[in-house]
Amino acid sequence: QVQLVQSGAEVKKPGAAVKLSCKASGYTFTSLPIHWVRQAPGQGLEWMGWINAGNGVTTYSQNFQFRFSITRDISASTAYMELTSLRSEDTAVYFCATETNGQWYFDVWGRGTLVTVSS
Amino acid sequence: DIQMTQSPSTLSASVGDRVTLTCRASQSLNDWLAWYQQKPGKAPKLLIYKASSLESGVPSRFSGSGSGTEFTLTISSLQPDDFATYYCQQYSFYATFGQGTKLQIK
Fold first, then answer.
1. Residue pair A94/A87 in contact by the 8 Å Cβ criterion
2. Residue of A nearest to B57 (CA)
3. Among A39, A114, B31, B81, which is most buried by a count of CB atoms within 10 Å?
4. pLDDT tens digits, residue range B76-106?
Protein backbone atom coordinates (compact mmCIF):
# COMPACT_ATOMS: atom_id res chain seq x y z
CA GLN A 1 0.00 0.00 0.00
CA VAL A 2 1.06 3.58 -0.58
CA GLN A 3 3.00 4.91 2.40
CA LEU A 4 4.88 8.10 3.18
CA VAL A 5 7.45 8.06 5.99
CA GLN A 6 8.75 11.39 7.22
CA SER A 7 11.98 12.26 8.98
CA GLY A 8 12.20 13.03 12.67
CA ALA A 9 11.64 16.20 14.66
CA GLU A 10 14.04 19.11 14.30
CA VAL A 11 15.03 21.99 16.55
CA LYS A 12 16.60 24.96 14.79
CA LYS A 13 17.75 28.45 15.65
CA PRO A 14 16.31 31.52 13.94
CA GLY A 15 18.01 32.18 10.62
CA ALA A 16 18.97 28.56 10.09
CA ALA A 17 17.62 26.22 7.42
CA VAL A 18 15.90 22.86 7.75
CA LYS A 19 15.51 20.05 5.24
CA LEU A 20 12.84 17.42 5.83
CA SER A 21 12.41 14.16 3.99
CA CYS A 22 9.39 12.14 2.90
CA LYS A 23 10.16 8.59 1.77
CA ALA A 24 7.57 6.91 -0.42
CA SER A 25 6.87 3.20 -0.71
CA GLY A 26 4.26 0.88 -2.14
CA TYR A 27 4.16 2.45 -5.60
CA THR A 28 6.34 3.74 -8.41
CA PHE A 29 7.71 6.96 -6.94
CA THR A 30 7.61 8.92 -10.18
CA SER A 31 3.92 8.21 -10.75
CA LEU A 32 2.47 10.33 -7.94
CA PRO A 33 3.08 13.92 -6.82
CA ILE A 34 4.17 14.93 -3.33
CA HIS A 35 2.56 17.88 -1.58
CA TRP A 36 3.65 19.63 1.60
CA VAL A 37 1.19 21.03 4.15
CA ARG A 38 2.01 23.05 7.24
CA GLN A 39 0.17 23.20 10.56
CA ALA A 40 1.27 25.72 13.17
CA PRO A 41 0.52 24.85 16.82
CA GLY A 42 -3.23 24.98 17.44
CA GLN A 43 -3.84 26.25 13.92
CA GLY A 44 -5.30 24.95 10.68
CA LEU A 45 -3.76 23.36 7.61
CA GLU A 46 -1.91 25.38 4.99
CA TRP A 47 -0.89 24.01 1.61
CA MET A 48 2.70 24.95 0.80
CA GLY A 49 3.44 23.47 -2.58
CA TRP A 50 3.98 20.33 -4.60
CA ILE A 51 6.42 18.48 -6.81
CA ASN A 52 5.75 16.33 -9.83
CA ALA A 53 7.97 13.43 -8.83
CA GLY A 54 8.28 12.34 -12.46
CA ASN A 55 9.71 15.51 -14.02
CA GLY A 56 10.68 17.47 -10.90
CA VAL A 57 8.49 20.46 -11.71
CA THR A 58 7.41 22.35 -8.61
CA THR A 59 4.70 24.88 -7.77
CA TYR A 60 4.61 26.84 -4.54
CA SER A 61 1.88 28.71 -2.73
CA GLN A 62 2.31 32.47 -2.87
CA ASN A 63 2.93 32.43 0.89
CA PHE A 64 5.95 30.17 0.47
CA GLN A 65 7.55 31.31 -2.75
CA PHE A 66 10.79 32.74 -1.44
CA ARG A 67 12.15 30.61 1.41
CA PHE A 68 10.77 27.23 0.52
CA SER A 69 11.82 24.60 -1.99
CA ILE A 70 10.89 21.02 -2.78
CA THR A 71 13.22 18.53 -4.44
CA ARG A 72 13.24 14.81 -4.99
CA ASP A 73 15.69 11.93 -5.31
CA ILE A 74 14.19 9.30 -7.58
CA SER A 75 16.78 6.68 -6.63
CA ALA A 76 15.79 7.05 -2.99
CA SER A 77 12.04 7.42 -3.63
CA THR A 78 12.22 10.46 -1.43
CA ALA A 79 10.98 14.02 -1.61
CA TYR A 80 12.58 16.81 0.38
CA MET A 81 11.32 20.13 1.68
CA GLU A 82 13.78 22.85 2.60
CA LEU A 83 12.84 26.00 4.45
CA THR A 84 15.47 28.69 4.89
CA SER A 85 15.90 31.79 7.07
CA LEU A 86 13.77 30.19 9.76
CA ARG A 87 11.67 32.35 12.05
CA SER A 88 9.77 31.48 15.21
CA GLU A 89 6.56 31.59 13.13
CA ASP A 90 7.86 28.59 11.16
CA THR A 91 7.43 26.41 14.23
CA ALA A 92 4.91 23.87 12.99
CA VAL A 93 4.23 20.32 11.97
CA TYR A 94 5.02 19.74 8.31
CA PHE A 95 3.12 16.98 6.51
CA CYS A 96 3.82 15.42 3.16
CA ALA A 97 0.86 13.96 1.31
CA THR A 98 -0.07 12.52 -2.05
CA GLU A 99 -3.11 12.08 -4.25
CA THR A 100 -3.48 8.63 -5.76
CA ASN A 101 -6.42 9.51 -8.00
CA GLY A 102 -4.98 12.32 -10.06
CA GLN A 103 -7.01 15.02 -8.33
CA TRP A 104 -5.84 17.39 -5.68
CA TYR A 105 -7.40 15.80 -2.64
CA PHE A 106 -4.93 14.06 -0.38
CA ASP A 107 -5.70 10.46 0.45
CA VAL A 108 -2.32 9.42 1.80
CA TRP A 109 -0.42 11.43 4.39
CA GLY A 110 2.83 11.12 6.26
CA ARG A 111 2.73 11.35 10.05
CA GLY A 112 4.24 14.81 10.04
CA THR A 113 7.51 16.31 11.25
CA LEU A 114 7.62 18.87 14.04
CA VAL A 115 10.02 21.73 13.43
CA THR A 116 10.71 23.96 16.41
CA VAL A 117 12.46 27.28 15.82
CA SER A 118 13.84 28.73 19.01
CA SER A 119 16.88 30.65 20.14
CA ASP B 1 -6.57 32.87 -4.19
CA ILE B 2 -9.72 31.02 -3.20
CA GLN B 3 -10.70 31.58 0.43
CA MET B 4 -12.50 28.91 2.42
CA THR B 5 -14.64 29.72 5.45
CA GLN B 6 -15.97 27.07 7.81
CA SER B 7 -18.73 27.45 10.35
CA PRO B 8 -19.12 27.11 13.18
CA SER B 9 -15.57 27.23 14.54
CA THR B 10 -16.63 25.02 17.44
CA LEU B 11 -19.64 22.76 17.75
CA SER B 12 -20.74 21.00 20.93
CA ALA B 13 -22.85 17.89 20.48
CA SER B 14 -23.74 14.59 22.08
CA VAL B 15 -23.34 11.00 21.00
CA GLY B 16 -26.23 10.12 18.72
CA ASP B 17 -26.80 13.68 17.51
CA ARG B 18 -27.04 14.59 13.85
CA VAL B 19 -24.64 17.43 13.05
CA THR B 20 -23.98 19.54 9.99
CA LEU B 21 -20.80 21.49 9.32
CA THR B 22 -20.65 24.19 6.67
CA CYS B 23 -17.91 25.32 4.30
CA ARG B 24 -18.16 28.32 1.99
CA ALA B 25 -15.85 29.25 -0.86
CA SER B 26 -15.05 32.73 -2.14
CA GLN B 27 -15.73 31.58 -5.69
CA SER B 28 -17.35 28.63 -7.39
CA LEU B 29 -15.59 25.28 -6.99
CA ASN B 30 -18.05 23.21 -9.01
CA ASP B 31 -17.72 20.13 -6.79
CA TRP B 32 -13.96 20.13 -6.25
CA LEU B 33 -14.18 19.94 -2.49
CA ALA B 34 -12.87 17.47 0.08
CA TRP B 35 -13.46 16.97 3.79
CA TYR B 36 -10.93 15.68 6.33
CA GLN B 37 -11.05 14.61 9.96
CA GLN B 38 -8.06 15.32 12.18
CA LYS B 39 -7.39 14.15 15.71
CA PRO B 40 -4.72 15.67 17.97
CA GLY B 41 -1.21 14.63 17.01
CA LYS B 42 -2.36 12.83 13.89
CA ALA B 43 -2.38 13.49 10.18
CA PRO B 44 -5.67 14.46 8.55
CA LYS B 45 -7.82 11.62 7.26
CA LEU B 46 -9.76 11.97 4.01
CA LEU B 47 -13.51 11.47 4.46
CA ILE B 48 -15.21 12.92 1.39
CA TYR B 49 -14.00 13.99 -2.05
CA LYS B 50 -15.76 15.60 -5.01
CA ALA B 51 -18.16 17.16 -2.51
CA SER B 52 -20.20 14.01 -1.90
CA SER B 53 -18.13 10.90 -2.67
CA LEU B 54 -17.34 8.80 0.39
CA GLU B 55 -13.75 7.65 0.67
CA SER B 56 -13.33 3.91 0.90
CA GLY B 57 -13.53 2.65 4.46
CA VAL B 58 -15.23 5.74 5.86
CA PRO B 59 -18.46 4.96 7.75
CA SER B 60 -21.69 5.73 5.92
CA ARG B 61 -22.85 8.06 8.72
CA PHE B 62 -20.62 10.66 7.04
CA SER B 63 -22.06 12.40 4.00
CA GLY B 64 -21.23 15.48 1.99
CA SER B 65 -23.34 17.72 -0.19
CA GLY B 66 -23.26 21.01 -2.03
CA SER B 67 -21.78 22.56 -5.12
CA GLY B 68 -20.63 25.95 -6.29
CA THR B 69 -19.74 27.92 -3.17
CA GLU B 70 -21.62 26.23 -0.34
CA PHE B 71 -20.96 22.76 1.02
CA THR B 72 -21.93 20.71 4.05
CA LEU B 73 -20.61 17.69 5.90
CA THR B 74 -23.24 15.79 7.85
CA ILE B 75 -22.69 13.13 10.47
CA SER B 76 -25.98 11.33 10.87
CA SER B 77 -25.47 9.87 14.34
CA LEU B 78 -22.38 10.98 16.25
CA GLN B 79 -20.16 8.26 17.64
CA PRO B 80 -17.52 8.76 20.36
CA ASP B 81 -14.76 8.40 17.75
CA ASP B 82 -16.13 11.34 15.73
CA PHE B 83 -15.12 14.07 18.14
CA ALA B 84 -12.29 15.73 16.25
CA THR B 85 -11.54 18.73 14.06
CA TYR B 86 -12.91 18.78 10.52
CA TYR B 87 -11.42 20.66 7.58
CA CYS B 88 -12.73 21.36 4.13
CA GLN B 89 -10.31 21.78 1.22
CA GLN B 90 -10.91 23.18 -2.23
CA TYR B 91 -8.98 21.78 -5.16
CA SER B 92 -10.51 23.78 -7.96
CA PHE B 93 -7.36 25.92 -8.11
CA TYR B 94 -4.36 24.48 -6.30
CA ALA B 95 -5.40 23.75 -2.70
CA THR B 96 -6.79 25.78 0.14
CA PHE B 97 -8.09 24.55 3.48
CA GLY B 98 -10.75 26.06 5.68
CA GLN B 99 -9.81 27.05 9.21
CA GLY B 100 -11.52 24.02 10.69
CA THR B 101 -14.51 23.14 12.88
CA LYS B 102 -13.78 21.55 16.23
CA LEU B 103 -16.49 19.07 17.16
CA GLN B 104 -16.50 18.59 20.92
CA ILE B 105 -18.56 16.65 23.41
CA LYS B 106 -21.41 18.58 25.01
1. no
2. A107
3. A39
4. 999 999 999 999 999 999 999 999 999 999 9
